[in-house]
């Protein structure tokens, strides 16, 4: 059984935090807090910023960071689901959406844009809506 995962390699630990490198332009929560403290230290004393504005900025940034983390976790779940789906295709007969390619699935690749079934005859068929999958014929 061959399943080829052809995506960005991201590993997950028990707490499901991705261990990928951050972009140099991204600002994490700690950097944001440092910037916020620096802004408070260097503000004009005659025109101080309202403390509710600081709290609002902090809350907004926290929500954005939580959304980013949730998206990463959902992406991981989708990849896991795609791998389960890929495993269930191997050894079954697949017919492409246009009906031109038919064959038994030998292996499946997980590409960034979805699954690609590789048939026993070597043809690669993207697994898209309209693809027909049924038990392999017995000979």
Description:
It is a single chain. The chain is an alpha+beta fold and 139 residues long. The chain has one domain (2-7, 30-39, 51-135). The protein contains 2 helices and 6 strands, in the order E-H-H-E-E-E-E-E. The protein has helices at residues 29-41, 51-89; strands at 2-5, 92-95, 102-111, 114-119, 124-126, 132-135. Strands 1, 2, 3, 4, 5 and 6 form a 6-stranded mixed sheet that branches. A hairpin with a 2-residue loop joins strand 3 and strand 4 (114-119). The chain starts with a strand and ends with a strand. Pfam families: FlgD.
Protein structure class: alpha+beta
Helix percent reads 25-40%
State the low-pLDDT regions, or none.
1-22
- Proportion in β-strands: 15-25%
- The averaged pLDDT comes out at 78
Shape designation: rod-shaped
Overall strand count: 6
The oligomeric status of these chains comes to single chain
Indicate the radius of gyration in whole angstroms.
24 Å
Number of helices: 2
Structural domains: how many? 1
Q: How many strands, which pairing sense, and closed or not: the largest β-sheet?
A: 6 strands, mixed
How many angstroms does the end-to-end distance come to? Answer: 21 Å
Order of helices and strands: EHHEEEEE
Function: Required for flagellar hook formation. May act as a scaffolding protein.
InterPro entries: FlgD (IPR005648)
Biased composition (Low complexity): 1-16
GO biological process, one term: bacterial-type flagellum organization
